[in-house]
Amino acid sequence: MRTSSLSSTFVVFTLLWLCIGSQSGNLHAQPKLRVMRIINNWPTIEVYIRSTCNGERIFPSNSKQFRISENGRDIRDFELWCPEPTTRDPLTCVILLDVDPRMDANAQRLMKQRARELISSLDLKRDNATILAVSATPSVVQSKTSDTTLLFAAVESVQPAATARLWDGLFQAMDLLHAERLYPAAVYYFGSGRDSASQKTPGDCLQHLWALWRTMLYSFTFGTPHAHDSLRILTERSSGRDLHNPAAGWMQTAVTEAATIVSRWIEDCLITYQATCMDRTERIVRVTLLDTCNGTDTEVKSYRAPVDTSTFTPLRVGPGTVFHALEGSVVEVPVLLHDYPSAYPGNLVGACTFSILFNDTLLSWRGADIPEGSIYSGVPVRTTLDEGRVIIYLDGPATAWPQTMPTTLLLLRFRVRTAQDRSVVRTPVHLVDWKFHEGCHSAWTRDGAVLIPQRRPAPVHTLAINGQSIRWDEALARYTPSPLQFSCLVANNGAETARHAMVTLSFTDSLITPTAPRFLHTATSPPNIEFNTVSEARWDLFLHPRTTGDTVLLSAEMIFDNADTLRGSLKLWIPPARVTGIDVAEKAAARLFSVYPNPSDGFVTLRFPDTDATYPVSVHDALGRLVYTVTSAQHGSNTLDLSAVPPGLYIINAGGFRQTLLLTR
After folding, report:
1. d(Cα 381, Cα 663) in Å, to the nearest integer?
2. DSSP H or E run through 117
3. Residue 343 class from Cβ within 10 Å (0-12 exposed, 13-18 middle, 19+ buried)?
4. Measuring CA to CA, which residue among 387, 407, 389 is closest to residue 398?
5. Is the sign of the CA dihedral 525, 528, 530, 536 positive or negative?
6. Model confidence over 164-201: pLDDT tens digits?
7. For a FRET experiment, which of 234, 287, 335, 626 has its CA 20 to 30 Å from that of 418?
8. Do the beta carbons of residue 492 and residue 457 sit within 8 Å?
């Protein structure tokens, strides 16, 4: 029994150990993401990332494995590039030859032999090299080329320097590379590694080396070993190597390492996207590696955007106008946003500050409120008052998109003061110094106003006519439109009622017959015109045929019991009346046919030519309906009794004669 119990215990512990080992293995296999650096090439943002799984480097190539955001806004349009670890790149390199005069002949010979071997290791169909002689003043022995013969000859031509000035030579050599705009993938130093009189330090050279972005430094020294670690430190910092009296095979290795993408610092995956809004704010970039190696990992890094306010989107903003603000009342002046861009989702306007200037003898400040439906709904509002100036602070970004344009941002409340002998009726409300504290928006401001009515009647008027173009209608034998409507519209912008309006119409034309004026939109007669109301006096004008076209001046005058008289005039062009190209009056004169009086109150005389003929007479209204008829009218004068016919415009037909008649009462 005891043996069986021990055996069972062993089995249990074995299974438990296997489970723990399996789980720890799974836990260890979680992904690890690092954001190595962010390079701001505005507007392109480069995010360099490095990923591992179970400690091994991985190179995810599917953009769906990543999610990236900037300041909480998802970046959906980005590009992902990851290197292929074994890809061979074209190689641009520089060979620095430092022939120390203290090097013996064997060391100098070995140094040049290794330099030639390195040149032979290059793929000169794609690679190229530049050769510099290192001294206190480095010189280009051979400019960039892929010609092996030229490179070999340059190596052989380098002679020993006068003194060993390693650091001065390296520093000046890198200066020369900058001047020549040479940015090699690798710099290969061949020399003794000794220094005796340099003014520059290894630290100076290291800073210069970092300026040659992504450049690897290889140091191959010959002869007596140098006694310091500066070259080794420089090479390690640049991912290169420091070798003394290297074997022949190392030259091929040095070329392969420098030409392989991963070994040349292009070992990071690159995410690029286009940024917006040059507002100098800090941008928090969050990168997440999704569903990789049984898990997910997130890394955050930041950069600062540049600033250029000329790229900001201008928004038109300003107060509205309040009409008819009565003394003692509280009015609300809206601050309106007239346009709103939508460059990308989340492009909400930011917190802002602005000032309102107003005439504090006419208005007193009462505060500001954010109305329901404002894009700043829920944002705190602070105000500071200082003698006709209010500084307003909206302490947070907009919380919503506008539904309609223009949209009301907030309401400014003023009380209208009571002022004696006031002559000002319009007081401006100026908006100045608008500043958005975040985002890429600027403000184009405009002014509003409060219109305060005078403390007395202030009627104003407008004259109008319903026909911009009057014409003669031959088929109807009358002018159209008919009747012509002439209107005088009167509004009262004063705080008191304009009482007992009396209006008259005058003109100097006998061929126009007006009706009595009618007042519309009023409850009294003569009408009283209340504050902020409009009344209309309207006449119907009947136009009689005329032989020539005329311009008629219509004048209206309105008198009040307690307000100034209003006067105005309007010019009206009336064309001649014609029937098939012949003037009506000329035709009537030729036939000696006339109708009088015209207009008439009901009794009309028709005069026919002095002949023995008889004439059938019919009278039709404007719609063509027969209203009166005489079977046979004699020559000379004939009287028609039209007293039973309603007033209006009628057409008299008598044989071949035709005339228009206006009946009035």
Report:
1. 71
2. helix 105-121
3. exposed
4. 407
5. positive
6. 678 887 888 778 777 777 778 888 999 888 887 788 88
7. 335
8. yes
- Beta pairing class for 594-596 and 603-608: antiparallel
Instruction: Note the residue count of the chain.
Output: 665
DSSP-based helix, strand, coil % in the chain, nearest 5: 15, 45, 40
Q: What is the largest CA-CA distance in the chain?
A: 160
**CA 389 to each of CA 355, 358, 365, 395, 529: distance values in angstroms, whole numbers, following the listed order:** 7, 7, 9, 19, 38
- Both tokens of residue 131? 């050769």
Contact 459, 492 (CB under 8 A): yes
Q: In what order do the strands lie in the sheet with 594-596?
A: 594-596, 603-608, 636-641
Name the DSSP class of 504: E
576-603, pLDDT tens digit by residue? 887 554 455 444 444 457 788 888 888 8
DSSP assigned state of 63: G
Cα 568 to Cα 263, 301, 461, 571, distances in angstroms: 92, 75, 8, 11
Alpha carbon 139 to its chain centroid, in Å, reads 55
This prediction has a pTM of 0.46
Asked if residue 478 lies in contact with residue 576, where contact means CB atoms within 8 angstroms, the answer is: no
Residue 1 pLDDT greater than 50, yes or no: no
- The residues that bridge with 221 in the sheet, in sequence order, are 191, 244
Run of H or E residues at 170: helix 166-179
Q: Which residues contact 237 (CB under 8 A, 6 or more apart)?
A: 206, 209
Give the integer Cα–Cα distance in Å for 642 and 636: 19
Residue 76 contacts by C-beta under 8 Å, 6 or more apart in sequence? none
Closest-CA residue to 412 (of 337, 355, 332, 320): 332
- Looking up tokens 């005339």 gives 659
The amino acid that residue 180 corresponds to is E
- Whether 338 shows a pLDDT value over 80: the answer reads yes
Q: Where are the beta strands (DSSP E) in 374-467?
A: 381-385, 389-394, 407-416, 426-436, 441-445, 448-451, 459-465
d(CA 489, CA 503): 11
